[in-house]
Amino acid sequence: MNDAVRLLGLEIPEQPIAGCDALRRSDDQSYRVQIKGRVVFDAGKGAPRVGQLKLEQEWDETVLVVMDEDYEPTEIYRATRAALEPVLEKKASNKRGAMTVAQFRIIAECVWTSASGFDQEAG
Questions:
Q1: Which residues pair with 77 in a beta bridge?
Q2: Are 34 and 4 in contact (CB under 8 A)?
Q3: Does 123 reside within a domain?
Q4: In 5, 46, 56, 109, which residue has its Cα 20 to 30 A from 62's Cα atom?
């Protein structure tokens, strides 16, 4: 969580908000962000999963921090609730609100990489 806050300039809410780890401000708007992190040890083995995304809670977007085997962030992806909801609702067997990191990457936008830093256009 700290990596996403630091690297993306997010703010920790003063009062806890269920389903929200941080706030992202853009122009005159504030977005409630839930932050997920996953270590990918070997991309060829298994399918690492993003943690539970609770649709019953209030959040606007999810940020996924992908880390290497040394727990250093390598990429950060951001997806809106509007983009994630249909996928989570469509999967009837998906009672826990989880998806693979690969699925999340397809839906989301890469907003930071260790090689190039913050993507200003993704702001």
A1: 64, 110
A2: no
A3: no
A4: 46
